[in-house]
Structure formats: structure tokens, C-alpha cells
């Protein structure tokens, strides 16, 4: 295969897609993911200091984001490690949601 054939094949595969735009979108989503996690952690810590309790709803959001990211990664790569981490994040999400519902119902403070 010569250089022109490789270039033609790459152009055909990426028809209608700007690779630089896709890479910028991917990087933006990655940074936004971590910024969201940091903000939720900050909110949870502030609520813990001011009100003396952990906001389990915020923690559930953080764990749900991790669950989604690792589940997509597992479905793409099919690596058992990614599935294990996704299941761990999923279990933590469910635990935090249950605790959050108990907080809302007044069973826990």
C-alpha cells in the first residue's frame, strides 16, 4: 500500500468527521467529568463541615459517573478489570442512593 492509498482510505473512513473537533470534544468531556467530580466533592465536604452530615446524593452522583465511564470502557474494550471497577462503582452508587433516600425520609441524619 502506498502513501496515496493510505490517505484515501483514511479520508473514506473519516468522511464527514473532523478529527481535531472530535479530539477537542473528547478532551472537553474528560475535563468536565473531573471538574464535576471535584465540585460535587467540594459541595459534600462543605455540607459535612457546616451541617455535620454527608450529602449522600452528591456522593451517588460521583459514583454514578464513575460507573458509567467504566461500563462504557468495559463494553468497548471487554477487559474484566473494567467490569470489576464498574460493578464496584455501581454498588457504591446504589448504597449512596439508599442512604440518600433514608436521609430524605428522616430515618438517618
Note the main attributes of this structure.
109 residues, 0% strand
How would you characterize this protein structure?
With 109 residues, the protein is mainly α. It has one domain (18-104). Helix content is 83%, strand content 0%. The chain has helices at residues 3-13, 19-51, 56-77, 80-104. The chain starts with a helix and ends in a 5-residue tail after the last helix.
Helix-strand blueprint:
Layout: H1 3-13, H2 19-51, H3 56-77, H4 80-104
Helix pairs in contact: 2-3, 3-4
Number of helical runs? 4
Radius of gyration, whole Å: 21 Å
Distance between the termini: 68 Å
The average pLDDT value, as a whole number, equals 86
The beta-strand count equals 0
Helix share, percent: over 70%
**What structural class do helix, strand and pairing data support?**
mainly alpha
What is the makeup of the main sheet? none
In short:
With 109 residues, the chain is an all-alpha fold.
